[in-house]
Amino acid sequence: MADVTGTTGTLVLAGTPIGDVADAPPRLAAELEKADVVAAEDTRRLRRLTQALGVHTSGRVVSYFEGNESARTPELVEALAGGARVLLVTDAGMPSVSDPGYRLVAAAVERDIRVTAVPGPSAVLTALALSGLPVDRFCFEGFLPRKAGERLSRLRENADERRTMVFFEAPHRLDDTLAAMAEVFGAERRAAVCRELTKTYEEVKRGPLGELAEWAADGVRGEITVVVEGAADSGPEELDAEELVRRVRVREEAGERRKEAIAAVAAAAGLPKREVFDAVVAAKNAEKGGKGEKGEKGGMEAGGASPQAPRS
């Protein structure tokens, strides 16, 4: 029951099975039974879960999904402030990891309300472990944008990422996504498509991105997690001016300011920022037919990007 002494309550983020109900963490049943409020992404799926676990929720059950997350968060925070124990569950996996939850956690932290978790199954870590790719360093990119141009831009931002990357994707977009990955990362880059993890028809398809894109063209069903090998760490690269300029432009197209793009390309190549800057200026002048370097330098430095004294 809610605390009536004036002490704030507790927000509990509970992991739920990503497939096999037997994977439910032991504490989940206890938390479901004692919570004052259970906020569920889908109340129907919550009902099926409690039935499978053989538990009964005595607290109030409310929906908490993408469509009402903003509106419902203040209500739940007030319940927490009044001493309630609020349990947050999503359809599968951990709340707030590409699922509702972040807004509520941030609001609870802002009010100095205790937040804890019941660890549970994770599609990210399960796919990573099964992929056969390096796991010592990795990053989670969630879902890529739906629009083709935005998807390419996001992938280009990760073109030089050396950590293993993990993505979620909808089955009907998988073929386009893998084809875009092959275009940006290279058709020979190793990857793994993990489908229906822990379920009856679990499948892990491993291979080069080009081959995986061809395989997915026939259609793939189920919940999808894609794991992609990071870029090779071959030390500082020897790049000509044309390639330096190309890399800066890729980053600019992805939304970076020129100053940041030049700094990132220089760092990746192990070169002074001035050298990359000069290559960009020369390319711009060549495009203009050699109309003076002074105007280009002035335009770049006006934004605070002085190559001689760059700001950190």
Q: What's the structural blueprint in terms of helices and strands?
A:
Layout: E1 10-14, H1 26-34, E2 37-40, H2 43-53, E3 60-63, H3 69-81, E4 85-89, H4 102-110, E5 114-118, H5 123-131, E6 138-143, H6 148-157, E7 164-169, H7 174-185, E8 190-195, E9 203-208, H8 209-216, E10 224-228, H9 241-253, H10 258-269, H11 273-287, H12 293-302
Please provide a written account of the structure.
The protein is α/β, with parallel strands linked by helices. 42% of the residues lie in helices and 17% in strands. The strands form two sheets. It has a five-stranded parallel beta sheet, with helices on both faces. A five-stranded mixed beta sheet has the order 6-7-10-8-9, sandwiched between helices. β2 (37-40), α2 and β3 (60-63) form a beta-alpha-beta unit. It starts with 9 loop residues before the first strand and ends in a 10-residue tail after the last helix.
Helix content: 40-55%
Shape: globular
According to DSSP, the number of beta strands is 10
| Beta strand % | 15-25%
Outline the biggest β-sheet: 5 strands, parallel
